[in-house]
User: Fold this.
Amino acid sequence: MSNKKKKLMVDMDDVICTNGFLYMINKYLGSNYTYDDFSEFYMQDILPDKDKFFDWFMNQNMYDYCELMPDCYDVLRELNEEYDLFIATDYVWREIANKSGYIVEHKFNWLQDKLPFISPEQYIFLVNKRVLDMDIRIDDKINNLDGSDVKLLFSSYHNREYTDEYLSDMGIERMNSWIDIRNRLLNNK
Assistant:
């Protein structure tokens, strides 16, 4: 019997951390939007002039305003002991695709600061997560769950409309919190 750990992919934005981009939208517009005001993934689609916003955005670090999701720190520490854990995160914004490289540094520094027990060797910065060979995936976007036996959709403002029946038909389980993830991946081992 093998003691090989299962490979676990965990998304960063809207799974590990939250509020950074929403904060940037509100700061730029002088508004008070909340996640309840959005149902689509691309919040920036509400902006009247995305070019001006992204010119401004590129001189900001949204990770200065990101917060860890509740219970994330402790559960990730536990998962890091039990699984071959990787943080897989997209860094390309469609509006500034050719200028998005600087975001890797912001994400890297945030992960180092907030989750020091996870080695930089466990960070994967990419756009197409389907290329990864993982046993378990946790993400807030359904298309990033493809290719794993265990597919865990982390609840977010843009995936609320998916019914339990729809997710079940796709072999996906919804996780509403990091406690749900602990219960699914640690208490059921």
Summary: Residues 129 and 144 are 6 Å apart (CA to CA). The mean pLDDT is 95. Strands lie at 7-10, 17-18, 67-68, 84-89, 123-125, 136-139, 150-154, 172-175.
